[in-house]
TrEMBL record:
Molecular function GO labels: RNA-directed DNA polymerase activity
Domain of life: Bacteria
Key words of the record: Nucleotidyltransferase, RNA-directed DNA polymerase, Transferase
InterPro entries: DNA/RNA_pol_sf, GrpII_Intron_Splice-Mob/Def, RT_dom
Keyword Nucleotidyltransferase: yes
UniProt name for this protein: Reverse transcriptase (RNA-dependent DNA polymerase)
Length: 379
């Protein structure tokens, strides 16, 4: 399927208005958002003039680092540019998703980490009673977001999108002349200062369109694995891939073919996490450890949950955030745990939330307990 004649739809008054509402979610009282909402139709007209001139580009990124669990450089854009990305996303992402294989997940509506885990568990159950010993091949792309080739990405987009005005806008977003995103081969984010980063590779972590670009880039690998190699038991979540087989030799052959494709066609490389092991050992995937009849949270995930929740509690007690923020964080974790066999850790997580800033201790635990019970009952 080719995407054609969508430029005018993307940058129409109606779509830009809806894009502003989407981009405003969770930040409606930010100064830049309030400024746009106050002058919304003039902002829409300004965006239309910028993109139709063919010279639209992102002038600069705001850069900060997070350490969850490893150092990552996050690049944030102004609200004005966020609107442009939402306008594009609203139209082209649903069209691109139609061309993806069923078993690709991550940054796709309805296909998050939980869906990916459940799909892999379905595959494991499917082979559990088949004869022989079954193994899994785990593949991971090295420094994926930092090593995406701009040239290859633009070639992929040009094959999918036959709208030159839209392609020019996308190319200007990809080839940012003000901020380099890329890392040299074998280097980590903490090893390369900003001034030594590369302009011709890499995507800014945190951008809405970076998620779209990341998915369409590895769609080429999905198609190769399914159509050329004819792999049946295959699941991908962003750059993490799991493949099942009852033959170690077959998995080694597939690994070699995939590695060759990744290096020559996509100009990427596999990292040291690549391995082949029996599925009886359990498979670590998207934060879970999965067996046919048992699922737990990965140890590193539980530690990160506790760290993040403890930080939210400290921020609340210091008066920096409201209780609703802590509640939302805990609810999201409990929602994840509802699909695991982790009763003890679930209780430990709830018990760790102690709020003492003019609130009754235990109030939040009562609320999330009621929420969790409602989830279990299907209310």
């Amino acid at each position: 399927m080719k995407i054609k004649h969508v430029f005018d739809l993307i940058f129409s008054d109606d779509n830009l208005y809806e894009a502003i509402q989407d981009a405003s979610k969770g930040r409606r009282y930010n100064k830049d958002v309030l400024r746009v909402q106050h002058d919304i139709w003039n902002v829409i007209e300004q965006i239309q003039q910028d993109v139709r001139s063919g010279k639209y580009t992102i002038d600069k990124y705001y850069i900060f680092y997070v350490y969850e669990p490893k150092k990552r450089m996050i690049m944030s854009i102004t609200f004005y540019h966020r609107i442009v990305q939402w306008a594009i996303y609203r139209v082209i992402n649903p069209l691109l998703v139609k061309g993806y294989i069923k078993d690709t997940y991550g940054c796709i509506p309805g296909r998050g980490s939980l869906a990916a885990m459940q799909r892999l568990r379905y595959w494991i159950k499917s082979v559990e009673h088949k004869p022989g010993t079954w193994y899994y091949l785990k593949l991971d792309i090295s420094k994926y977001f930092y090593r995406i080739s701009h040239e290859v990405l633009k070639e992929i987009l040009a094959r999918k999108i036959k709208d030159q005005q839209l392609l020019q806008v996308l190319y200007n977003i990809i080839d940012c002349q003000y901020t380099p995103f890329g890392l040299p081969p074998g280097k980590g984010p903490g090893e390369v200062p900003l001034e030594e980063r590369l302009y011709d590779v890499g995507m800014p972590v945190g951008n809405l369109l970076s998620q779209v670009f990341a998915n369409i880039y590895l769609d080429a690998l999905d198609q190769f694995c399914k159509r050329t190699l004819c792999i049946h038991f295959y699941v991908r979540y962003m750059d993490d891939i799991i493949i099942l087989s009852d033959s170690k030799e077959q998995l080694h052959m597939w690994k070699d073919e995939i590695q060759k494709f990744v290096e020559t066609t996509l100009r990427l490389s596999l990292n040291q996490k690549t391995c082949i092991r029996p599925i009886s050992q359990g498979i670590e995937f998207v934060g879970y450890r999965i067996w046919p009849h048992y699922v737990t949270i990965r140890k590193s995930t539980t530690l990160e949950m506790k760290r993040h929740l403890r930080r939210k509690v400290e921020e609340y007690n210091a008066g920096l955030i409201e209780m609703e923020v802590v509640t939302a964080t805990l609810k999201s974790y409990l929602g994840m745990l509802d699909h695991c066999d982790c009763k003890e850790f679930r209780k430990e997580l709830i018990d760790s939330v102690v709020l003492d800033r003019n609130k009754v201790v235990g109030e939040i635990a009562y609320e999330v307990e009621n929420y969790s019970e409602a989830m279990v009952c299907g209310l």
